[in-house]
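Lab notebook: predicted structure, single chain.

Context: the supervisor wants predicted structures on file for every construct in the current expression panel, including those that have not yet been purified. This is the next one on the list. No modifications to the sequence; it matches the entry in the shared construct table.
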Amino acid sequence: MPFCDKCGAQTAEGAAFCPACGAARSGGGGGSTAGTGTSGVEENVAGLLAYALWWITGIIFLLIDKRPSVRFHAAQSIVLFGGLTAIQFVLGAVIGGTAMMGSFFAMGSMYALIFTLLRFLGIVLWILCMVKAYQGERFKLPFVGDIAESISGK
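Prediction complete. Output recorded below exactly as produced.
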């Protein structure tokens, strides 16, 4: 089913205008996804792929796909995994700094435990989000989902 180039809403086959925003459809509406603001894959697969390489594929799908559900999953991927990556980067700097100061076993082991738990949490959330996106669910994580909705334009 084709989608509007401007707002990403679903439109009827052969419709000249978008029913949601009234924008003229380019190409007169064939079954092709070229020029329709989609990535060329089914919506649930695109949602799954938005999480595939954490925030990297999130950025790609946020830029190329205009479907609201896919944009939400892409934005949630960016916020969630971008945040986890930033936290892990800062923790890595702290762990490295404490190791340089010679107190690695006192403070460094606590940071290493937190770092490991964050990685485990990231993997669990990664799998959960991909499964929910593939099932077609709009799985909204607390706090992260609110930020993702504001980024995706909902």
